[in-house]
Each structure stands twice: as C-alpha cells, then as structure tokens.
Amino acid sequence: MHRMDRFLNFIRYIGDEYLGNIFKITEFTMILLYYITFMVFFAQNMIPTELYTIIGQIQGFLALYAAYRFRFFGFAIVVSFEVVQAAFIVSRLIYEPNLSLVAGVVSKILTIISMIIVALLSNKQELQKRDLRRLAITDDLTDVYNQRYFNASIFNELEKSKKKRKSLGLILIDVDNFKKYNDIYGHEMGDEVLKSTASLIKVAAGSENLVFRYGGDEFAVLLPNSDQFNTTRVADNIRREFESQRHFCYTDGIGSQISLSMGISQYPDLATNRDELMNQADMALYHSKNLGKNKIHFYQDVISRIRKGISKDHQHLIGVFKTLLSTISAKDTYTLGHSERVSTYAVMLGEALNLGLNEISILQYAGLLHDIGKIEIPKTVLNKSSSLTCEEFELVKMHPVYSANILESLADIDQLVDFVKHHHEKYNGTGYPSGLYGSHISLGARILCIADSFDAMISERPYCSAMSADEALEELERCAGQHFDPELVEIFSSIMKAKV
Fold first, then answer.
1. Mean pLDDT, rounded, for 8-24
2. Residue 297: its pLDDT value, please?
3. How does 473-497 read in b/e, with b if 16+ C-beta sit within 10 Å?
4. Domain end residue (candidates: 252, 274, 299)
5. 155 and 115, same domain (yes or no)
6. Which pLDDT belongs to residue 433?
7. Structure confidence at residue 169 (pLDDT)
8. Distance between terminal CA atoms of the chain?
9. Calpha distance 382→387 (Å, rounded)
C-alpha cells in the first residue's frame, strides 16, 4: 500500500509539473502516438530506406519540441524511443552497411545531445519564471504570500467553494504590542519577530492552508474546505506553537507581552460573500484585541446571540432587528461593527453592575441600534476626513433623535428609546440633544455613552487616528465627572484593565 501511495504521488507530481492542462496532455499524446506508430512500422520493415532522412528530420523536430515543452519528462520518454530506433538502425547497419543508415545513427546521436541541451535550457527558463512569479506574490520580509496575492486568493477560493459547495475559513492574526516592541528594541528586532512569527504560522497552519502577510503586523490564513471546528483547531494550534516557541522575542519588559490575537469567520455558515467574510473576521479580531488580547474570537452573528438570550415577550423583534442591522450595514460597515462592539461593552458593564436580565437585554438592543439614525446622514458627512462645518455638525448631532424616531415603534420595550436618544448626553449637562446632566440621564444612556466613546476612540476613522486601549481608558478617566459618570468609568476601567 505504501508503494502504491508513492506511485500515485509520483503520477500526481508528473501531472502537476509537466502536464498541467488539457492542451499539454493533448500535445504529449499526439507526440507519443506518432512515435509508437513509427516504431511499429519500423519494426515490421514497412518504411523504405529512402524515407529515413525525411522521417529523421520530422522526428528530430518532434524530439526537440518535446524536450522544450515537457522538459526532462519529455526528454526521458522520447529519448527511450530514439535509443531503441538507434539500436535498430545499428543492427541493420551490421548486415547491410550503407551511408544512409550511418547518417541515421549520427542523426539520432545529435538529436539526443540536442534534446539534453534544450531540456536543460527549458527547465532553467521555467525555474526563472517560477522565481519571478514567486517574487510577485511573496512578501519580501516574511517569505509568506503578500497582501496583493491575498486579495486574488480569497476571491478565487470563494469561487471554488461556491462551485464545489465547500466551506472556507479565514483567520486574521495581529501581533499584540508589536508597535511598542518595535519602538523599544528597534526595527531590526521587530523584523525578526515578524519573520519568525510568519514562519511559525506557516508550519502550524499546515501545508493545505495559505498564509499571507496582510499588513504591517497582521497575518491572514485562508483554509479551503475547513469547517468552524477545524478552523478554530488551526487557530488554537497557531497560538500554542507561538507560546511554546516565542524565544525569538525578548522575554523581559514589553517583550513578555508579545502575543497573538485572532479573529475568525467562515463561509458559508456565517458569511455569504468576500466583504462579509473579511468584515466579520476583522470584527472578531477587534473583539480579541479589545477584550484581553492573546485570544481567539470566532465571529458570532449578532442575531444568533440575541435569539439565544431574548425573552419570549421580545421574540417578535428578531425580524425587526435583522432589517435594521442590514440597513446599517448597507449604509456603513464601520457603523455596524462599532454598534456590535458597543453592545458588547454595554452588556459587560451591565453585568458588572448586577443588573437584571431584562435590563441587560435592553442594553444589548440599545447598543446595537444606538446609531441607526445615521442612515439619515449623508455618507459624505459620515466619512468626511476634514473638520465638519457648523451645519454638518448640527446635522450629525441629530442622529440620536433620528434613532429614537425610528425605534418609537418598539416602545413596548421599556427604556430602549430613552437609552438610544440620550447616549450623547454628558454628565455635566453639555451634551445633546436635551442637555441632561448627572442622574437625570438614565443609567442605560450613561452606560452607552461610555461604551460608545471608548470604542470610537480605539477605532480608526477617516477624521481621527485610533488610540490604544490604555490611552482610551486614560481619556475616560480624565473626563470622568465632566462627560462621563465617574463611578461607571471606574468600574469600566477596572473591567477592561483586567482583560487587557
């Protein structure tokens, strides 16, 4: 059985290496048929001696063509025919010497020598082409595939998965605290971390999966025909291998904080297209980094999460939530991801306050829907990279009111509209839209204000660079008592610092 496996592997290698498509297979078959037919006629003495020169020229051309097109494989097959023919000619030459047969033998020898030269040159040319192709799709530093090839590969793999009705897993990986490490120890040591990490991921991911450098300190792994269980298993394997072999990092100071955060999604169970697959894995990675780092987070469909915890009285709202969230997604994918994260932070804070299940559910809904009113704001204003004009800012300030108006039909959920409408109120009364202050702002709105502000600060937006989680927490603490409820800020900071 072992020999059979090796034989089958050899056949597959020949097919992949030399006969890569139907046209090459057809070419090689035609050459082979010609030689077999000629050998049969030659063995039966059915070819007149005066035709040897013409036939020899045809065979010489085909021999060189085979050596060029099929390299060493073509040479090995055709040269066997040439040697057999040369032996036949020599045997005839012994019994009936003539100049034509001598010329035939010399022609065969020259053909074989020429085939060797052509096969060597053709093989060298093929290796050079492969080197150029490899350089075009490989990251110079880490020697894994580059981002450009990732963009082509994810499209191709999705098309294959759709046609074959197979699954496709995606893992996005971020090196935690890499920027700090790079700043402290220098770019040379930072590059060593990236190279070693890439090599480790490549081995741990397995040869059947594709590894890419997706950004500065981000990597991506595409897993063809991989279900959720297998994708998570590969991610776990990558993290375990990194933890056990991270000797390439300095073990003191910031070096001890180098780890991997991962976000995972999968087609078709969670995502239906490329954009969804990318956005979901990206959101899952966001959760991994902001909820403690050195974690693996599988994207969870927000509707599925709500369906698990929603009370019987609210079951009829599932369809409404799906419609509203799809509307947000169509308008702005950042807003959807931001809303999901705000919902998570709000629930975390609600649980720390020991709120009831019903109150926590309302916080979850409010976090998801707090920015639904932005569908009324033009994209040119939402994504503007420069400062807003006074008129544009006044328009943006209306989005909590727009959100509340949209959600008025859900007024049977106590406090939902209130939480959403007042999540931009400030503790000192300088917020909007109503200028409420202190305890006059509902607890849910105060919670949303902190969750919303924290996620906004750590997010990369067109008009503002992202802060680190530590910097965002410092900003919350600095503004406690002014913009934010100081007691809630203290609780939220302790939760996040424990995770980070």
1. 78
2. 77
3. bebbeebbeebbbeebbebbbebbe
4. 299
5. no
6. 93
7. 95
8. 53
9. 11
Q: Is the separation of the CB atoms in 173 and 238 below 8 Å?
A: yes
Q: Which residue is associated with the tokens 């727009």?
A: 402
The tokens describing 160, both together, are 């294959």
Q: Do 226 and 206 meet the contact criterion of CB atoms below 8 Å apart? A: no
- Residue 270 sits in which domain range? 147-299
The percentage of the chain sitting over the pLDDT mark of 70, rounded to a whole number, equals 85
What is the number of structural domains in the chain? 3
For residues 151 and 13, membership in a common domain is answered with no
> Strands 168-176 and 259-267: what pairing?
antiparallel
Q: How many residues does the chain have?
A: 500
Task: Give yes or no for residue 105 having a pLDDT over 70.
Answer: yes
Q: Are residues 454 and 341 in the same domain?
A: yes
| DSSP class per residue in 341-398 | HHHHHHHHHHHHTT--HHHHHHHHHHHHHTTGGGGGS-HHHHT-SSPPPHHHHHHHTT
DSSP strand E in 273-361: where?
A: 296-298
Residue 336 lies in a domain: yes
- What's the pLDDT band for 350 if we cut at 50, 70, 90? very high
Domain membership flag for residue 362:
yes
Q: Are residues 22 and 132 in the same domain?
A: yes
Which of 246, 271, 299 marks a domain boundary? 299
Summarize the confidence of residues 258-265 as an average pLDDT: 91
* Percent over 90 (pLDDT), the chain: 33
Check whether 158 has a pLDDT greater than 90: yes
Q: Domain check: are 317 and 237 in the same one? A: no
| Cα 500 to Cα 497: distance, rounded to the nearest angstrom | 5
Higher pLDDT, 98 or 225: 225
Q: Helices 469-478 and 486-499 meet at what angle, rounded to 10? A: 160
Residues 240 and 264 in one domain: yes
| Dist. CA 301–CA 318, nearest whole Å | 13
pLDDT tier at 300, thresholds 50, 70, 90:
low
Predicted local distance difference test score (pLDDT) of residue 142: 92
Claim to verify: residue 320 and residue 442 sit in the same structural domain = yes
Please tell me the distance from the alpha carbon of residue 316 to that of residue 412, in angstroms, as a whole number.
11
User: How far, in Å, CA of 272 to CA of 340, rounded?
Assistant: 19
Asked if residue 310 belongs to a domain, the reply is yes
Do residues 297 and 281 touch, judged by C-beta distance below 8 A? Answer: no
Outline where DSSP puts E strands in 225-349: 259-267, 296-298
Q: What is the DSSP letter of 249?
A: S
Is a pLDDT exceeding 60 seen at residue 373? yes
Domain harbouring 328, CATH code: 1.10.3210.10
| pLDDT interval class at 299 (50, 70, 90) | confident
Read off the pLDDT of each residue in 357-374 and give the average, rounded to a whole number. Answer: 86
Q: Is residue 142 part of a domain?
A: no
Are 87 and 42 within 8 A, CB to CB?
no
Cα angle 449, 454, 460 (rounded to 5 degrees) comes to 125
Strand partners, 484: 480
Q: Quick one: 337 and 473 in the same domain? A: yes
Reported confidence tier of residue 368, pLDDT bands at 50, 70, 90: confident
